[in-house]
Structures are given as C-alpha cells and as structure tokens.
Design brief:
- With 165 residues, the chain is α/β, with parallel strands linked by helices.
- It has helices at 29-44, 58-71, 90-100, 113-121, 157-164; strands spanning 2-7, 51-54, 79-80, 104-109, 136-144, 147-155.
- It has a six-stranded mixed beta sheet with strand order 3-2-4-1-5-6, sandwiched between helices.
- A hairpin with a 2-residue loop joins strand 5 and strand 6.
- The longest helix is centred in the first third of the chain and has 16 residues, at 29-44.
- The radius of gyration is 15 Å and the shape is globular.
C-alpha cells in the first residue's frame, strides 16, 4: 500500500477572538489558496488514491475536499473517521487501513497526530517527522498490522506548490 498523510492547511488562529470551537475551525483564505496549490503538486506527482480518509474536524475535511478535487477523486467518497482526530491512538488508524485493503490511500489530519502515526509505522517511540501545514508524507507499506514499510518521501507545501506550477 502507498499511504499519503497530509496535514490540514492553515486554519483560523485559536487566539482569534472570533475563533469557533476547535472542531469547527476552518481554513483561512490564504490556507485554502496554499492548499489548492499544494494539491496541484500532488496531481503533478500522479497520485491516484482509491480511498481517502479524513478527520471530521472542518479544516481537515476542507483540505480533503481540495485534494479530492485536484486529484479527480469523487468528493462524496471522502470518508470521515475518528481515527484521524487529534489525540487519537495511531494504532486505530492502522486497524482501519487494514480493513480498507486499498493500493493507494490518502489521509487528512493534524499535527502532531500524523507524525505519531509515521513514528508508529517505524517502531519509533517519538516523532521522527514534523509535517508542515499542507505538507505530505508518502509511506510504502508491505504490512499494516503491525505496520512495516519505509518513508518514500516527505514534501513541504512549498515543494508541492513548485511541483504544481
């Protein structure tokens, strides 16, 4: 399986007095623009997921919708899962991925959770990556329970934007 883990784009700042509750924080206009540009980079890489999973938090859902549009993935097939919520157990995502049996799967979530998912895949006790907002890691996995594989690449949003130009 090829697994793509994308952190959500730039969202409304928690310190903003008008900030909604955590689960409802949306992407900013700038976040939407930069995420669209990063998603074009994913398109240029030829990514063709057969499944997309997202945290139910609004900013992750919006990121997933932007990526699904850029990659020609049916928006209606974007699946929400609690296993990508901040603070969820990384092992829960691995169990869900094992049930999917997809060849290419893309997930949208949050930091530091996605970095913990990556660490869990390699048996590390702490994070070994630090995904930027709208950044993506690609893992090639030969087993899911327990996860075994390697990191193929990790791109910052800036690199993805350049690839999409």
């Amino acid at each position: 399986m090829l697994l793509y883990l994308m952190r959500h784009g730039v969202a409304v700042n928690r310190a903003d007095p008008a900030c909604p509750p955590e689960a409802e924080r949306p992407l900013t206009r700038k976040g939407i623009k930069k995420t669209r540009a990063a998603a074009q980079g994913l398109r240029a890489l030829g990514i063709q997921p057969d499944a997309m999973l997202t945290s139910p938090y609004l900013r992750a859902v919006q990121t997933g919708e932007i990526a699904s549009e850029a990659l020609g993935f049916p928006r209606a097939k974007l699946r929400l899962t609690d296993s990508l919520k901040p603070g969820s157990n990384p092992a829960d995502l691995w169990k869900e991925l094992a049930r999917l049996r997809g060849k290419e799967v893309m997930c949208f979530g949050h930091a530091p959770h996605l970095d913990q998912v990556i660490a869990h895949a390699f048996g590390a006790s702490s994070s070994i990556t630090a995904l930027k907002k709208a950044g993506v890691a690609c893992l090639e996995l030969r087993a899911l329970l327990p996860p075994k594989g390697h990191l193929v690449w990790l791109h910052t949003p800036k690199v993805l934007r350049l690839l999409g130009e």
